[in-house]
């Protein structure tokens, strides 16, 4: 039965971890995968998470099946974070939320549900985007195309091209939008540009699918929700996949959610019933632990404050690494101007490094970056940044 199975290509990002693990050089640095490390190079276990876990362990709750859509306390916490506590949409019963297996799981159940609703629709993702967007929607049976996004010349968004493209899409087209901290470019839209995107979606009858995997990593929980809030106040129906992998440092617990905004209670009930069917036939119901911890933190004023402070600490540390890298590259005599790195938002920088330069970083220095030139700033720390700056300056020297 397996004789004709071909070798599948490795994930271009997760695949880097294998090469990195096998590298025996002590000075090696993994700038590939989008994971936040602390200044000691460790994935942090947040104090708020630890406290919530301690309380749970002591309470020793039973491990029955969860509701198919996950617990109400978790889903309410997700909605409050996305739209702001007490938002009209929530009060009016217009938000259907289901816990999901990370942001990826949320995208997947959203994609499967959309396939039932509109099987012939095309999905549009940004050029470039997180590679899994394309694969995930293709595997759900959709044709996937790009809309223009990044402009290498300005190292920002070519918004005129993006907007013109959206205004040319057919009604019912599904548009995947990075709500903040664009992966991989770090280039985000301004609030007024988001307003234009909302209007383009309204005018063309598009199906917006917002993906927010880094809420809190640009400017903070509230400001990073600007796109979600603008869509939320627009009266449109849309999808949001959200993730706590990064913001709670709970990568392996697989905690995320899909939220669907409907036109009212009756539509919500029907949508939820179908979404539950999608979930039931995929994995029945979500695991308990991660969601219970996130809900406990978000629903306790004390733990929530602790979490927000820790999240701010992660955000600030990444910012420091950005400006420090720019300074050190200049001090190393880099022939290129890298000041754009401080304008990019979130975990990533699209450095403009070529494939050959990325290869040289790996071969000559044991520094691993994505072949597109994307690096994860959250993997830099006060001990490896000098080495990385020296290496980047060397491989980019004309
Ligand atoms: N969407 C984007 C844009 C991402 O960068 C990621 C990163 O992991 C995800 C979704 C998936 O998040 P998760 O790890 O929670 O599945
Ligand atoms: O872009 C990243 O690095 C993160 C982590 O298939 C990731 O989003 C990368 C690839 C993948 C799943 C997660």
Can you offer a commentary on this structure?
Its cofactor is pyridoxal 5'-phosphate. Belongs to the class-I pyridoxal-phosphate-dependent aminotransferase family. It is a single chain. The chain is built from 14 helices and 13 strands. With 398 residues, it is an alpha/beta fold. It folds into two domains: 14-44 and 312-396, Aspartate Aminotransferase, domain 1 (Alpha-Beta Complex); 65-287, Type I PLP-dependent aspartate aminotransferase-like (Major domain) (Aspartate Aminotransferase, domain 2). It has a seven-stranded mixed beta sheet, with helices on both faces. Helix 8 (191-204) runs parallel beside helix 9 (226-232). It starts with 13 loop residues before the first helix and ends with a helix. The site of (2S)-2-hydroxy-3-(4-hydroxyphenyl)propanoic acid (TYF) has 8 residues, from loops.
Task: Please render the helix and strand layout as text.
Layout lengths: L13 H9 L6 E2 L16 H13 L12 H12 L4 H4 L3 E7 H16 L4 E6 L3 H9 L3 E6 L1 E2 L4 E2 L1 H9 L6 E5 L12 H14 L2 E6 L13 H7 L5 E6 L11 E7 L3 H18 L6 H10 L2 H31 L16 E3 L4 H11 L1 E2 L5 E3 L8 H12 L2
Parallel strand pairs: 1-12, 3-4, 3-7, 7-8, 8-9
Antiparallel strand pairs: 2-10, 5-6, 9-10, 11-13
Helix pairs in contact: 2-11, 2-12, 3-11, 5-6, 5-10, 7-8, 8-9, 12-14, 13-14
The structure holds pyridoxal-5'-phosphate and (2S)-2-hydroxy-3-(4-hydroxyphenyl)propanoic acid.
(2S)-2-hydroxy-3-(4-hydroxyphenyl)propanoic acid (TYF) binds next to loops.
Brief summary:
The chain is α/β, with parallel strands linked by helices. It has helices at 14-22, 47-59, 72-83, 88-91, 102-117, 131-139, 159-167, 191-204, 226-232, 265-282, 289-298, 301-331, 355-365, 385-396, and strands at 29-30, 95-101, 122-127, 143-148, 150-151, 156-157, 174-178, 207-212, 238-243, 255-261, 348-350, 367-368, 374-376. It is 44% helix and 14% strand.
């Amino acid at each position: 039965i397996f004789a004709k199975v071909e070798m599948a290509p490795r994930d271009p990002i997760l695949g880097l971890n294998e090469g990195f693990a096998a590298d025996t050089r002590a000075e090696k640095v993994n700038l590939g995968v989008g994971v936040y490390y602390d200044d000691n190079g460790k994935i942090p276990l947040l104090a708020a998470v630890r406290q919530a876990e301690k309380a749970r362990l002591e309470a020793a709750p039973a491990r029955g099946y969860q509701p198919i859509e996950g617990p109400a306390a978790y889903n309410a916490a997700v909605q409050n974070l996305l739209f702001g506590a007490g938002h009209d949409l929530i009060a009016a019963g217009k938000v259907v939320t289901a816990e999901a297996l990370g942001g990826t799981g949320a995208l997947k159940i959203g994609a499967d549900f959309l396939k039932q609703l509109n099987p012939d629709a095309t999905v549009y993702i940004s050029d470039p985007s997180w590679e899994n967007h394309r694969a995930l929607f293709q595997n759900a049976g959709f044709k996937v195309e790009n809309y223009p996004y990044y402009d290498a010349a300005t190292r920002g968004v070519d918004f005129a091209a993006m907007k013109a493209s959206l205004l040319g899409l057919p009604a019912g087209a599904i548009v995947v939008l990075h709500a903040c901290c664009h992966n991989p470019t770090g280039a985000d839209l301004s609030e007024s540009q988001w307003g234009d995107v909302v209007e383009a979606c309204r005018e063309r009858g598009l199906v917006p699918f917002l993906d927010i995997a880094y809420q809190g990593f640009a400017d903070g929980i509230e400001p990073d929700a600007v796109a979600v809030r603008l869509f939320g106040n627009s009266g449109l129906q849309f999808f949001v996949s959200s993730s706590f992998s990064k913001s709670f440092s709970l990568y392996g617990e697989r905690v995320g959610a899909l939220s669907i905004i409907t036109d009212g209670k009756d539509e919500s009930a029907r949508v939820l019933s179908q979404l539950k069917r999608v979930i039931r036939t995929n994995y029945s119901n979500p695991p308990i632990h991660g969601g219970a911890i996130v809900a406990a933190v978000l629903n306790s004023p004390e733990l929530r404050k602790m979490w927000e402070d820790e999240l701010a600490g992660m955000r600030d540390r990444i910012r420091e690494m950005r400006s420090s890298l720019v300074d050190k590259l200049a001090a190393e005599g880099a022939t290129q101007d890298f000041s754009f790195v401080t304008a990019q938002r979130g975990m990533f920088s699209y450095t403009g490094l070529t494939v050959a330069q990325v290869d040289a970083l790996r071969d000559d220095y044991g520094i691993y970056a994505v072949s597109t030139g994307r690096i994860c700033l959250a993997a830099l720390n006060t001990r490896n940044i000098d080495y990385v700056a020296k290496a980047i300056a060397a491989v980019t020297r004309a």
